[in-house]
Design goal:
The structure is a single chain. The protein has about 230 residues and is an alpha+beta fold. The protein has 7 helices and 11 strands. It has helices at about 1-20, 125-135, 140-145, 155-165, 175-200, 210-220, 220-230, and strands at about 25, 30-35, 35-40, 45-50, 55-60, 65-70, 70-80, 80-90, 95-100, 110-115, 120. Helix 2 (about 125-135) runs antiparallel to helix 3 and helix 5 (about 175-200) packs antiparallel against helix 6. The longest helix is centred in the last third of the chain and has 27 residues, at about 175-200.
Length: about 230
């Protein structure tokens, strides 16, 4: 009897741990817990299915902020003309992620991105010529790339070295960084509106949390942000 109770308790604890480690975070901030399944990639978009109890829900990547599966974080970033689901490998001022190519199921394509900047996809072919201009703000890393110290096979060392030697978090206080943050607000408006239009088309009720988020964004000085962004374009 004790053995039976122990097995039941172990099962419950395992199930609860699994459930808590797998969830989606929507653009409106809602969090959904369940079994997360990444659907096959398509040319225009990517989708995620989540099983909650005995029901399934499917979300487009642009409807999500992030996903967490068994402790692994997946971020949704715009790259190549669509919102891609990317597996986070290393987080920092310079972050390393991996995404799936169209028609593939595994997260294999490497992607580097700095805070407040669009990232780049990298591969073995042309690795140095692709990465060197992107990281030329760090003389030590640039020299290491020239001397072939860094390759795709040790990209994690490259990311860690850059973050330790050259990442300057104070860049967040510069005017350019502030413009980037304001641009993030504008992109969030786009995502929230997409979600609202999607629900209107499908005659679904609009959650109060989504309404509140839209109201919050409307209260921001986005018009001046937009004007400043236009002025910053050369």
């Amino acid at each position: 009897m004790r053995r039976f109770c122990f097995l039941i308790l172990t099962f419950i604890l395992t199930f609860n741990t699994y459930a808590q480690d797998s969830y989606l975070v929507k653009t409106n901030g809602d969090t959904l817990y369940g079994k997360v399944i990444f659907l096959a990639t398509q040319t225009i978009l990517e989708s995620v299915k989540i099983k909650i109890d005995k029901t399934f829900q499917v979300f487009k990547s642009y409807q999500l902020k992030s996903c967490y599966v068994n402790g692994t974080e997946y971020r949704i970033l715009q790259f190549g003309g669509k919102h891609r689901i990317m597996q986070l490998i290393t987080s920092g001022y310079l972050s390393h992620l991996k995404f799936r190519e169209e028609g593939k199921n595994e997260f294999r394509t490497n992607y580097l991105t700095k805070k407040f900047q669009e990232g780049i996809a990298v591969s073995n072919i042309g690795f140095r010529s692709r990465v060197t201009p992107y990281l030329n703000d760090c003389e030590v890393i640039e020299k290491g790339l020239y001397e072939k110290k860094y390759k795709l096979s040790n990209i994690e060392q490259l990311v860690n070295d850059y973050n330790q030697l050259c990442a300057n978090e104070s860049v967040a206080d510069t005017p350019l960084a502030k413009k980037k943050i304001e641009f993030e607000d504008l992109k969030e408006v786009e995502l929230v509106l997409s979600e609202i239009f999607h629900k209107k088309r499908n005659k679904e009720p609009i959650p109060n949390t989504l309404k509140a988020k839209f109201k919050e964004l409307l209260e921001k000085d986005l018009e001046s942000s937009f004007d400043e962004l236009l002025e910053s374009i050369d």
